[in-house]
Every structure is written in C-alpha cells, then in structure tokens.
Specification:
There is one protein chain. This protein has two domains: 2-68, Winged helix-like DNA-binding domain superfamily/Winged helix DNA-binding domain (Arc Repressor Mutant, subunit A, Orthogonal Bundle), CATH 1.10.10; 72-113. The protein has helices at 2-14, 20-30, 36-43, 47-68, 70-90, 96-113. 82% of the residues lie in helices and 0% in strands.
C-alpha cells in the first residue's frame, strides 16, 4: 500500500510530464487499483508490458523528484506552516493580534499549496 501512496504522490506532482498512454496506465494501477491483468486487457498489451511500463514510469517520476525535490519542498513548507499555526494557537510570548496574523499567514500558505 505504501508503494501506491508514493506512486500517487509522484504522479500528483509530475504526472503532467507523462505521455497520455503512461498516464492512463499509471492512473489505472494507482487510483483505480486495477490488476495488471485488468489493465493489460483494457490496453491490449501483455501483463508483463503493463508491469514494465509502471516500473519504468515510476522510476522516471522518482528521477524527477530526485532532481527537482518538489515533494520534499512541499512537505517541508507544509510542516513549517503547521508549526506556525501551532505557535499562533499557543500564543507563547506574542500578542493576540500577532498570533492571529501568524495563524492567518500560515493558513494562507497551506491553502496556496493545495
């Protein structure tokens, strides 16, 4: 299951870089949870061909992440924004107005990431 989650995240960030055929097969495997045999029957290719394409496409998407680090940056920005919201709610050593502003800015950052 964890592998499919990672494939889905890679696809979410870099899927637009794939060819339509690659997108269709990876979506069927990851999002529709179809078996290799089901995808092969739909696409008119062998089960092994589907397996190889999914592996190759996933490797390519991982190479994009290894070069561009978009998922890593997204995760880091999200974690920082969540920490800002926590700090604003705690209001340790800051005024209520400053906490409200901090919370609002963090909320805007999180909203922009989606």
């Amino acid at each position: 299951m964890e592998k499919k989650i990672e494939q889905g995240r890679l696809y979410d960030f870099y899927g637009d870089l794939l060819k339509p055929h690659q997108k269709r097969i990876l979506e069927a495997a990851v999002y529709d949870d179809l078996s290799l045999a089901e995808i092969a029957a739909e696409e008119g290719i062998s089960r092994q061909g589907v397996h190889d394409l999914i592996r190759r496409v996933t490797d390519n998407l991982q190479e994009y992440e290894d070069s561009l680090h978009m998922i890593t940056r997204y995760d880091r920005i999200t974690a920082h924004a969540m920490r800002l919201k926590e700090m604003a709610m705690e209001q340790d050593g800051i005024s209520e107005q400053a906490a409200s502003t901090l919370y609002s800015i963090a909320d805007d950052i999180l909203r922009d990431l989606v």
